Amino acid sequence: MKHIARLTHIAMPAAVVMAFLFAPAVDVHGETGRLLFFHVPLAWIAALAFAVAGALSIVHLADRSGRWAHLDAKARHSAAIGLAATVLATATGSVWAKMSWGSYWNWDPRETSIIILMLVYIAYFSLDSALAGRGNRGRVASAYLIIAMAAMPFFIFIFPRLFGSLHPRSGSLETDAVTRITLLVSIAAHTLLYLYVFSLKNRVFALEHVTE
Prior knowledge:
By secondary structure, this protein is an all-alpha fold. The chain has one domain. Helices cover 76% and strands 0% of the residues. The protein is built from six helices and no strands. The protein has helices at residues 2-22, 36-62, 71-101, 109-130, 137-162, 177-211. Helix 3 runs antiparallel to helix 4 and helix 4 packs antiparallel against helix 5 (137-162). It is globular.
């Protein structure tokens, strides 16, 4: 965890400096295009965190020995980070939409799909909270996260392509080498941030469990 923390403390400031001082303005969006260096990594972190939550839930349900009894809690932690990243990705996307399309919200298929995905995981936390104190909480919540993970690719990749979308597709923006490098650095930095926050939440949970 110490190594992840150190790398995060180096990578995140480097990504911010590169986004604002090293990379040029993106395509026709001007300075607003610098949101690309945060919007895309946040969307990536949301997908990664939800996938990790689903994978941990699969292991939790498959475990019959009780060895991985607390994986449902770790899955919940990852889903929480994913939901936070989804909210931030939606916020940065709304600012981009205002500058590019003249309105913060246009009910574009991409915007609609991310709202639906957000509601899916909000419903998960409502369900998990309602089951607090019950013996089947972990298994029911894990089953929900697996279903949500299976549905996630539809909302991210398929649904937006079923209808005409104003949202730029991957690779549609003309970017130079510096912009691509900056974006990759930002994605790597945000990935480290996810791992750091995830490990912190798991450590806090472990300490609380020992105390109890």
